[in-house]
Amino acid sequence: MRAAWVLLPALAALSAYYVYVPLPGAVSDPWKLMLLDATFRAVQQTCHLIHYLRLGHHLIVLNYLICTFDKLKDVSSEDIKITDAVFDGVEVRVFEPAAKGDESLKRSVVYIHGGGWALASARTSLYNNLCRIMAESLNAVVVSVEYRLVPKVRFPEQYHDALHATKHFLQPHVLAEYSVDPSRIAISGDSAGGNLAAAVCQQLSKEEDLTVRPKLQALIYPVLQAFDFNTPSYQQNMNMPVLPRYVMVNYWIDYFNGNYDLAHELLVNNHTALNVGRALSFRARLNWTSLLPPSFTKNYKPVVQTTGTAAIVEQLPALLDARAVPLLADDATLSRQPPTYMLTCENDVLRDDGAMYAKRLERAGVPVTLDHFHDCFHGCMIFTVWPTDFSAGVQTRNSYIKWLDENL
What we know:
408 residues, alpha/beta, 43% helix
């Protein structure tokens, strides 16, 4: 009995030590975020152990666990018809509001989910609920793209899936089938899905034979560049739940089918040092000292290596490919983009990716709405259902849907 009295406080102290992470004072629901982060870290560590023991790829195991848990929390609606379809070889889930007697054509959103190009699904409740609520609130047809994931496929296959599904949907006869107004279509996505949405919009803007083009793009804390892992937000939020800097770097490595041994060199920007000739022409497009406001740059300093490792770009050429890194696109491409909504969170390593893209689009003459949340964190918009219900999720989701409702 005496041993139990000693053991229980010790276990409680160890649990508290594992759960607790220092957070900025403005973060909403801090203890709930700590618990979410601790759970995710524990699951990730278990998956890495399984990978180490060669029992399965850690990302496949992690995604299986996420999807198994997530499916238990689905919220249904009788007002929305949900069907699975295949658009040009790509699986999609379509959300259609109930038809009304004298109703004209509906507006529509093509949505691309996040998850580091490796996790989540259009079919799991986190995204199923988001898209259902969008369809219901906007009275819009929502097409959620089920692109293939890492490690089964790597870049550029996720991009190709998103592009093919979107182009298929934009065909006039397909829009007619779903009673969609061709002049009122938005392309949207969060995190890695925001990356794919931005890349798809850029490509669509270059295709002269398209008869239907998106009216808007709406990007939710998108990941847009792998050029500089020391922007102010990467420095400020390097250990921030639920996306620490090293995790984002590993997602990039997985996406490009690279070696984790490169992680440290990427973290210190050796891949874009001044002696890496292929990177020099892109440097001005990611000069955050001129693209970010003082409230973002604070007192952070650029990390620019004089001598780096040019071989990294040779091994991972997609690091400088605008299809993977939309922030590297030239000004001519940016000038052709549709009016843009950009949602960013202060407590997110990707905050500056979104803010820099918004500024470059604005300079190229594109109307931009930058919707910045000081108390929110990466991924928050999908966390609206118990037990992962955050006030930040409801706040960001409502603001996003409100902008779509007013502009689409």
